[in-house]
Amino acid sequence: MAGGRGGRRAERRSASARLGTWRTLRESLTPFFTVELPRIRVTVRAPAGATVVRCDRQGYLDVAVDGAGLTPGWQELTVAASRRGHSTEMAVPVLIVDPEATLALVSDLDDTVIETGLTRGLEFLRLTLLTSVTDRTPLPGAAELYRALTAPRAGTAGCPVFYLSTSPWNLYELLARFMVLRGFPTGPLMLTDWGPSRTNWFRVTAEEHKLTMIRTLLSEHPALQVVLIGDTGQLDPEIYATVAVESPDRVRAVYVRRTPSISPARAVEVDALARRAAAAGVPMVAVEDSVDIARHAAGLGLLDAADVGAVSAATRH
Fold first, then answer.
1. Domain final residue, candidates 96, 113, 138
2. Does any domain span residue 8?
3. Which has the least CB within 10 A, 5, 156, 269, 286?
4. Residue 198, domain member (yes or no)
């Protein structure tokens, strides 16, 4: 009888695990089943007035809004749309960069902040579709490092953070929840649209997307210097070295995490790119973990010794 009861308990555990997997899969797939409304007319309401525009052919909205009357920090604008007699509106969070800020953190997400396996197809699908957001883990010490880098320092404004990724916009909610759950400083997520377009079958390339976003950020915020953080798994070293050479006076430092699977040939390529950035006057460092970044950043005056200790403790935990 004991064996029978144990068997029934094992069956219940197995059924519960299957149910949990199914719920996670449904939660993960739902954002990909969306209905786009191309060219729909949208009104964005801000204190300075309303702006009326149309979404692009994929249903996305990219619009410049008069920021008069909005104070630095996170604010909310109202976005309203109507179609075939139905209307809706919602509050949309926007970040107003403090004009006193002199530094911004620009960070990759995939395998830099959160393990996604983006460069390993099956692993990416497993982590994205079969792992609940509450079970996803950040890279050790990353949240503590980012909080230290963005915290207001004596006589300076806080440092805004921008998260740059080639993950699809469909994963926005999942990634935003992850950042809050794991204690990362909040910042705009700059993702991509996956699917056919006039120029690409699958998506815009990582190089085109990230270079465009960083160049736009530097252009729109001419008073900001940036710290760039990425990894060696994709083209972050190539992209960041290009930015460093183009705008050496705007880049304080570049950090790229070595992925566990980095090959000797790739390591040589990254070292060559680091020398290229250094020749332009920008330190570009390939690191093993968050502690390496914290120690180097402290040497540049971007962190305090206490911050290094906190990052080190979190990394070892």
1. 96
2. no
3. 5
4. yes
